[in-house]
Amino acid sequence: MNGALMKASSRFAIAAALGLALSAGSAAAADLGGNCCADLEERVAELEATTARKGNRKMSLTITGQVNRGVLWWNDGEDSDVYYGLDNTNSSTRFSFLGEAKISSRWKAGFEIMMEIEAGGTSSKVSQWDEDGKVGTQINGAAAASFNASNVDSYMGDARRAAWWIEDKDLGRLTVGRYESAGVVTTIDLGGISVVASGSVVLLNGSFAIRSSAGDYYAVTWGRLGDPASNQGRTELIRYDSPSIHGFIASASIGEAGDYWGAMLRYAGEFSGIRVAAGIGYENITDRPTSAACFTLDHPNSSAACALSSTGGNITQGPTDLTAVKPDIDAWGASLALMHVPTGLFVQGHYMAADFKASTALSGYWGHDFATKTDADQWLIQAGIAKNWTGLGNTAIYGEYSKSNDWGAGLTTGRSYSNATLTGTTTVNGVTDTELTVWGLGVVQNLDAAATELYLGWRRFEADITCTGSLVAGSCTDPAGSGTTKLSTQDADFVFGGARVKF
After folding, report:
1. What is the DSSP letter of 373?
2. Is the pLDDT of residue 474 over 60?
3. DSSP states of 289-336 as a string?
4. SS3 labels along 461-485
5. What separation in angstroms does the CA of 175 have from each of 149, 172, 321, 411?
């Protein structure tokens, strides 16, 4: 909706009004009342008053976005079902307002506001007992209100991006606001399959509980065993991106109170028909959470997490969280993608790792939401062919394989998963080692004329969980001769199909 569009809208309004006047021309001529022009001007004014406008003619305004919804079939080894119309968290439904203005021959400035439609029924939140995407007490027949009851609207969502930027064509771009940080790089998608097979393997089914060989629900979800989808997380920051220099772009950012910073280097090029994309990035996090109960400053909370006192409504001491040891997390990741352009054959993948440094301090970043988190890593490889065989657009057929190690494990006595957070499940204590294996196949069909992608993807999830076993009778068993205690688990299959329509 730039200036040209505004002018076009005004011309259309005039043309529409003129058309109305001409259609009644014979009657008006017969009246000879002389008021036809006044009526036309009044109608044009009404139409112009209802035309969408931007605030000024200097900053352009573009509205863009996408709708991405689909159908999920799941089988957890005991039960199966189909959920309809879910939002695809791999690339969620969203819209953006983009603006740009030229300052000089070298400089320009702009902004971006991106809103995500996180309505009930998102792929990463639904589970066996909750097709609406919010955990309740539905397990084992216990009654609970539906999050998204029939004919009841869901909430709007949140701002993924809200930032302004300024750019020099030779020096690069500076971004200030809420935006993706520079940091860990995961799979760069040359094959065009990330809409259904993103580098994070838990965004389509992470809230499903793992089943035991006896059919019980564990208080452990598949999402706890996979990467926490935290790479290049969005936060309030200042970010710098260099211009492209021989295919290389360098980026760096610092966020929040200086507790979150990172850097990355990316490359894109083509040699003798081989397209290459690669990247590597690092980030460091020392941010710590603060108890929500401590945020009401005018009415200090006396909970154990707070040590507040007030004089005339002024706080003289903050939450005790502020005196706790800060976490110190290092994370890095690298990606390489290759495509043979003439044939469309491609291979792509990444490796990433997080070092929690045996910290007892808690942080929400990289899944560090419990004490003494074990270091973790993940790798993924995808391969296939993307070719326009039909004339409609590229058809991408792919296969994939991934391993995620120790994202759900704790040091020493291990991590515990309580049924207090997943009502009706079986508590699992003392998890010291986890491995998530994922296999997948799928296809993505582009419809270039409609800016649409149709997709269908299958993933199988396999879990290997080691725990102490002595804390919860029957949850861990020691297979004969194994020398370790293993949690009995069943594999799960997920098939997700849908469409992403861009506008």
Report:
1. B
2. no
3. ---GGG--TTS---STTB---EETTEESS-BGGGGSPPP-EEEEEEEE
4. EEEEEEECCCCCCCCEECCCCCCCC
5. 40, 10, 31, 39
Q: Tokens for 500? A: 């992403």
Kindly report the CA angle at 257 between 252 and 262, in degrees rounded to 5? 20
β-sheet bridge partners, residue 310: 315
- C-alpha distances (whole Å) from 103 to each of 108, 112, 237 are 5, 17, 24
For residues 294 and 290, what is the distance between their CA atoms, to the nearest angstrom?
A: 7
Domain 62-93+181-229+252-288+332-502: CATH architecture, name and number where available? Beta Barrel (2.40)
Query: Span 17-23, mean pLDDT?
Result: 40
The helix (run of H) or strand (run of E) holding residue 197 is none
Question: Can you tell me the distance from the alpha carbon of 218 to that of 210, in angstroms, rounded to the nearest whole number?
Answer: 6
pLDDT of amino acid 7: 42
Cα 261 from Cα 400, distance rounded (Å): 31
Burial state string for 39-69 with b = 16 or more CB within 10 A and e = fewer than 16 = ebeebbeebeeeeeebeeeebbbeeebbbbb
User: Which letter does DSSP use for residue 43 in this model?
Assistant: H
Assigned token pair, 451: 């800016």
Task: Evaluate the CA torsion angle 416, 417, 418, 424 in order and state its sign.
Answer: negative
Residue type, 364: G
Q: Which residues contact 360 (CB under 8 A, 6 or more apart)?
A: 325, 371, 372
Asked whether 170 and 106 are in contact (CB, 8 A), the reply is yes
CB 335 within 8 A of CB 352: no
The pLDDT assigned to 475 comes to 57
**Residue 154, pLDDT score:** 56
Q: What percent of the chain has pLDDT over 70?
A: 75
Q: How far apart are CA 270 and CA 247, in angstroms?
A: 9
65 contact partners, CB below 8 Å, separation of at least 6: 93, 94, 95, 96, 502, 503
DSSP code per residue over 6-24:
HHHHHHHHHHHHHHHHHHT
CB-based contacts of 98: which residues, under 8 Å, 6+ apart? 60, 61, 62, 63, 64, 110, 111, 112
